[in-house]
Amino acid sequence: MTGGVFVEESGGGSPTVVFLHGQGASGVVWDGVVAGLPGYRCVAVDLPGHGRSGRLPAYSAEAYASAVAPALPAGPLTLVGHSLGGMVALALADPALGLDVDAVLVLAMKVTWTEEEARRRAERASRPPDHFPDRGLALRRFAKLAGLSAHSEGLASGVEPDGDGWRLSHDPATAAGPPVPPEELRALAGRVAAPLHLACGDRDAMVSPDDLALLGRPVTTLRGAGHNVHIEHPSVVAQLVRAAVPAPRPAS
């Protein structure tokens, strides 16, 4: 753990792929995708305020990126982000941050929010964390929130002791504040110098391909996929990663 940010590395090949999860999840949601990338060096991050990572005083794309960047290995890096993690990937790829980024893949990132969606988001963020009398109940709640099976490995990363019981380890404040306006997300995408790939499922109830296309780049529509495409169809996402990652650089 570097600077309070937990990362889990696997594989020792090249190139290096960094995985950034969505709201309320942790790095374990990428296990299926990582399994489909033998020979790659894979780095799954628990974003600040989630999983095994520490919390931040406030959360924004820039705050996430500033906290995560020091925990990453040297580049070149391919950044893969789902939903919230997609926004973090865009911020990490900003040349001003100084990371060596070869490619960016953004999955199912919500660009526009209705007033009702923003209201519900703020309401959830204002609630005190749920308290669970036993660990099993907390694990099942985390599995549901993250889109995982209740029997998935690594669920323990999403819960922590809470007095005489348990709670989810993610910080409700990660959803505080208004959503990032579409024009700011588009500007963030516009600063990415590396090849930027966007993908979204045609059965995603939260994000449509047209919504994601507001970032100003072509969108790959994934047939039969919902919001958690990396969990529902890990082999498809692994294929997208292989297509996006440039060939290893020759030794100089």
Instruction: Please report the number of helical segments.
Output: 9
Inertia-based shape: globular
Q: Find the CATH topology.
A: Rossmann fold
How would you spell out the order of helices and strands? Answer: EEHEHEHEHHEEHEHEHH
Main pleated sheet: 7 strands, mixed
Q: Helicity range of the residues? A: 25-40%
- Based on helices, strands and strand pairing, what is the structural class? alpha/beta
Fourth-tier CATH superfamily name: Alpha/Beta hydrolase fold, catalytic domain
Oligomerization state? single chain
Domain count: the total is: 1
Strand neighbour order, sheet with most strands: 1-3-2-4-5-8-9
Estimate the strand proportion: 15-25%
Work out the number of β strands: 9
The residue ranges in which pLDDT falls below 50 over 5 or more consecutive positions are none
The overall pLDDT average reads 89
What tags apply to this protein structure?
252 residues, alpha/beta, Rossmann fold, seven-stranded mixed sheet, two-stranded antiparallel sheet, 9 helices, hydrolase, Alpha/beta hydrolase, AB_hydrolase_sf, AB_hydrolase_1, AB_hydrolase_fold
